Structures are given as C-alpha cells and as structure tokens.
C-alpha cells in the first residue's frame, strides 16, 4: 500500500525548520541534473543514518528529531569555489554521484541561517540534463513524475524526500523484524546509500504502485499539491 506524503499528519512548528541542501556548481563544467538528484538523496540518507543522528546522545540527534516532528522541509541552494569550501565547516554530510556533489546539513530554523548558507542562492538552480542515471544495481530507486517539470534544485529536494521516506520505512520495518527490510537496509548501508533516479514513461508512472510516494504541498514551483516522486526497493 502506498503512503502519500505532503504536509505530514502533524502540525508544523511555529518557527519552521528545514534541512538545507547545497549543490556544488561549476560554471565551466556543470554537473548533470540526474547526478545531482542522486547525490542529494544519498546525502540525506547518510545524514539520517549517521551515528551522530541515530545515537540518542549523538550531537545531531536532538536537531534531527525536532525537525522530523514537523514538516520535512528541504531547501536546495547552490555554491561554487570558495563558498562551497566555506560550507564544509558546517555540520553535515557530502555525497557524490557521477558529476554531482551535494552536502546535506543538520536541520535548523529556516531563519536565521548561518551566514555561510544565507548568502547562497536558492531560486533558479538549473543544471544541464546531459544523460540518464549511470548508477547500476542500487538497492533503492527513485522515480520522478514525467509530467512535472522541476528545476534541479526543486527536484533535488523531492528526491531527498523520497530517499528519506524510503529509509524511514525500511528502518521501521527492520525494527519490527521484517527480514527483507533488514537485509535491504544492511545492503543499502554497505553500498554507501546509493540511489538511482529515473524518469519513467507516462504509462509506466500511471501503472506503478510504489511503497513511497511524495506529494508536494505546492508551496514553490508547483501551483497545487502534486505527486512528484516515488521510491521502491
């Protein structure tokens, strides 16, 4: 059974929190769109699965738990050269997929932001769509809605949502002694939490029923609540 996710079945915080995602941009040799989405999804999962998050006494545990209790906002920004180097000092996890590199940061208030993040551009992050995914034999696959056109930044956030929900579903099932989930989770971890991002045909999208569905609330780029991504394993 699929479980749509838009605004979670809980109220948001009075002061919203978000996980910031920073995409490395190189104007001379820009990364491929799909590579960036895969890097973003992997970075999100690695941060959530990091001992600093999963250990109740971990340095990131309280912040991640607070963020998860509200809406799981993600904001994608871009940085290059020194600005990319500067954000590496902030708590987070960097992941790479092909030409794409993205750093996911420990969630915090939408405002104020650390100055290293605040100065980074959010809107109109668009990278060239050179080729499809080059990832093979991944344990988790993310599908994007072929009828919805999203910028690279917005799509990276949606891929991050799908990866997070897949991870949380697997962890929950594994904790309830689901042998398949336990094996999949162990293999995914051993593989560095890689994902493959694909765009199915319209017919394939209409016919598929996946365990994770992401329904965007329609706050940015999309005019109304729309299913944007799915994940399966």
What does the model show?
The chain contains eight helices and ten strands. It has 233 residues and is of the alpha/beta class. A hairpin with a 2-residue loop joins strand 4 (92-97) and strand 5 (100-105).
Layout of secondary structure:
Elements: E1 3-5, E2 17-24, H1 33-49, H2 51-54, H3 61-68, E3 74-79, H4 81-87, E4 92-97, E5 100-105, E6 108-109, H5 115-118, E7 141-144, H6 152-175, H7 179-190, E8 196-198, H8 202-207, E9 212-216, E10 226-232
Parallel strand pairs: 1-9, 2-3, 7-8
Antiparallel strand pairs: 2-5, 2-6, 4-5, 7-10, 9-10
Q: How many β strands by DSSP?
A: 10
H and E string: EEHHHEHEEEHEHHEHEE
The biggest sheet amounts to:
5 strands, mixed
Low-confidence stretches: 1-7
What integer value in Å does the Rg equal?
17 Å
Mean pLDDT: 93
- Straight-line N-to-C gap: 14 Å
Tertiary shape: globular
Range of strand content: 15-25%
Entry summary:
This protein has 233 residues and is an alpha/beta fold.
Characteristic terms for this protein:
233 residues; alpha/beta; five-stranded mixed beta sheet; 10 strands; 35% helix; globular
């Amino acid at each position: 059974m699929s479980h749509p996710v838009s605004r979670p079945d809980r109220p948001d915080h009075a002061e919203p929190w978000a996980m910031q995602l920073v995409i490395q941009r190189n104007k001379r040799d820009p990364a491929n769109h799909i590579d960036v989405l895969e890097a973003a999804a992997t970075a999100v999962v690695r941060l959530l699965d990091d001992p600093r998050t999963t250990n109740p006494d971990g340095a990131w545990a309280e912040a991640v738990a607070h963020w998860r209790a509200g809406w799981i906002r993600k904001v994608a920004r871009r940085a290059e050269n020194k600005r990319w180097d500067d954000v590496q000092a902030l708590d987070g996890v960097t992941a790479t997929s092909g030409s794409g590199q993205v750093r996911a940061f420990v969630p915090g208030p939408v405002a104020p932001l650390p100055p290293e993040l605040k100065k980074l551009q959010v809107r109109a992050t668009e990278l060239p769509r050179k080729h499809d995914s080059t990832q093979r034999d991944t344990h988790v696959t993310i599908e994007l809605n072929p009828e919805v056109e999203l910028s690279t930044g917005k799509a990276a956030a949606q891929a991050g949502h799908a990866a997070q929900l897949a991870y949380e579903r697997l962890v929950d099932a594994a904790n309830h002694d689901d042998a398949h989930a336990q094996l999949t989770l162990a293999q995914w971890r051993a593989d560095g939490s890689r994902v493959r991002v694909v765009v199915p045909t319209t017919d394939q999208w209409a016919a598929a029923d996946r365990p994770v569905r992401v329904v965007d609330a329609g706050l940015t780029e999309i005019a109304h609540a729309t299913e944007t991504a799915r994940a399966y394993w």
